[in-house]
Amino acid sequence: MKSIAIIGITGSIGLSTIDVVRKHPDKFKITLATSHNKVDQLKSLIKEFNIPQAVITNCKFNNKNKGIMYGQESLLQILEDEKFDVVINAVSGSAGLIYSYHILKNNHKLALANKESLVMAGHILTGMSSNIIPIDSEHSALFQIMNGLKPNDVKKAILTASGGPFLDTPLNQFDHITPEQALQHPTWSMGNKITIDSATMFNKGLEAIEAHWLFGFDYSQIQAVIHPQSIVHSMIECQDGSILTQMSIPSMQLPILYALTYPHHIKSDLTKTNICDLPPLIFLPIEKTRFPLYYLTIEAGISGGLIPTALNAANEAAIKLFFEGKINFPQIYEIIDNYLNDFNNITDPDIDTILDANKYVFNEVYQSL
C-alpha cells in the first residue's frame, strides 16, 4: 500500500484524487493532507480516511482544531521529517512552487498538477530530480506515449486544447464577457483560475513551457491545437510520420491513477471510454487574434529566465482585477503584454529571486489600477 501526501486536497485535483483512493482503498493510504483555508472540509476528510497528519497552510487561522497543524512552515517541516511514497502537489497557481521545491529537495516522488512550478522554475526543479510525474492530462498523455520512445524519435509534441467557452464567440463581443461566462468551461470542471486561463488559452501556453522542461522538447517541436471534444489528450508525431496518441473521455482520475501507479496501468473502472460512442474528433489551429495570450506565453517561454515568472504573476493579478470588475476580458492580455515590454530579465534566477519577483510583479500589476 502506497503512502500518499496530498497538498491541496480540497481543490479540484485533490478531490479527484480522493475519488481514486475511494475506488482503490487497498492500494493507497493518505498519510498527509493539506488545505489552505477549508477547515471543515479537511476535518471531514481526516475523519473519513483516518489521515494522521493534516495542515491548514493559511497562517491567519488559529490552531483550534485538534490534530490539525497550521502554517506553511509546519508543512515544510513535515516534508523534511517524514517519508511518503508519492506527494501530490495540487495547489493552484504560483503558490505551489515552494512546495514542489521542498518536495524534491527532500527526495520525495512528486506527482505534479501545479504547472506554474515548472513555468517559473523549470531550470531549477528538473535539475534537482527526475522524480517528477505529471498529472495534467496533456502531460500525462505525453508521459505515457514517450514511454519506449527515444528523443530522436520525436518530430513534434502536439498538445490539445478544448478551446474554452469562447471558441465561437464573435470577437466584437469579447469586451462584454463576464467572469461568470468565462467560468463556464465546456468539458472540464476545474478551479476558477485555471478555468479563466483556459478561456484565454494562457493555460495552453503554460503547458507548452511545462512540456519543454519535462521532456526536453525545443519550443519549435511543440504545437498546440484546438480539439473541442477533449478526447485526444496529446499526440507525438514521430520522425517517420507516425502519430501516437493517448485517448479517453475527459477525466482527471485517469492521469492521477497513472501517476500513483506508474509505471503500471492497474485494473480499474474509474474511467470507461466506449470508442463507438465517441463523437467525431475535430482539430483546429489556435487563432492569434482570438487567443493572443497563448502566443505571448510561448514567447515568454523562449525568452526564459525570470520572464515566465513575471508573465505568470501579471496574469494572476490581471485575473484578480477581472473578477473584481476593474478590467474587461481582453485587457487581461493587454495588461500582461504591456508589463512584459518594460521588464528587465534575469537569465538564471535562483529560487529566492523567483519567489520575490513573483510577489513584486503581482503587487505592481494589481496596484496599477
Verbal overview:
The protein is an alpha/beta fold and 369 residues long. It has two domains: 2-134, NAD(P)-binding Rossmann-like Domain (Rossmann fold, 3-Layer(aba) Sandwich); 140-251 and 280-303, no CATH class. It is 43% helix and 15% strand. The chain contains 14 helices and eleven strands. It has a seven-stranded parallel beta sheet with strand order 4-3-2-1-5-6-7, with helices on both faces. Strand 6 (110-112), helix 5 (115-128) and strand 7 (132-134) form a beta-alpha-beta unit. The mean pLDDT is 95.
Q: What fraction strand?
A: 5-15%
Could you list the spans in which at least 5 consecutive residues all have pLDDT below 50?
none
Q: Overall mean pLDDT score?
A: 95
How much helicity do the residues have?
Answer: 40-55%
> Largest beta sheet, briefly?
7 strands, parallel
Order of helices and strands: EHEHEEHEHEHEHEHHHEEEHHHHH
Q: What's the count of strands?
A: 11
Amino- and carboxy-terminal Cα gap: 52 Å
* Separate helix tally: 14
**Rough shape?**
globular
The whole-angstrom Rg is 20 Å
Oligomer: single chain
Strand order of the largest sheet: 4-3-2-1-5-6-7
Number of domains as seen in the coordinates: 2
Structural class: alpha/beta
